[in-house]
Amino acid sequence: MDLLQRYIHHDLSPHNHIIPSSAPPIPSTNGPSSIHTSLDDHVVPYNKMVRHRECLKNHAAAMGGNATDGCGEFMPSGEEGNIEALNCSACNCHTNFHRK
């Protein structure tokens, strides 16, 4: 067996990808279907409450150290739904720095 045949794993003959007209139609997944109902019928409200714990922001990362501010629990700065509610009123850090 020569080297070229060892690395070829398939037939080199041209493949015929023409689908005959007698083949059954392939169902489309792009358009609406009479089988499926509206997605609005299946929407279930999902309100998962996430409680943020202590702040893990490393304030000494630029110097190569590790220093947290000691904030024990996230307290929102504003009312729920406002952009201010994403910052902690105790340490002024974003919720991303607080452990969930």
Characterization of the model:
5% of the residues lie in helices and 0% in strands. It is low in regular secondary structure. It has a domain at 49-99. The longest helix has 5 residues, at 3-7. The protein is elongated and about 75 Å long. 6% of the residues are buried. This is ZF-HD_dimer domain-containing protein. Keywords: Metal-binding, Zinc, Zinc-finger.
Task: Describe, in short, the structure shown.
The chain is low in regular secondary structure and 100 residues long. It contains one helix and no strands.
Please describe the topology of this protein.
Blueprint: H1 3-7
- Strand content range: under 5%
Query: Low-confidence spans: pLDDT under 50, at least 5 residues?
Result: none
Structural class: little secondary structure
* SSE run: H
Counting H and I runs of at least 4 residues, what is the number of helices?
A: 1
Number of strands: 0
* Backbone CA Rg: 30 Å
What proportion of the residues is helical, as a percent range?
Answer: under 10%
Report on the biggest sheet: none
The dominant shape is elongated
Please state the average pLDDT score: 76
Oligomer: single chain
Distance between the termini: 62 Å
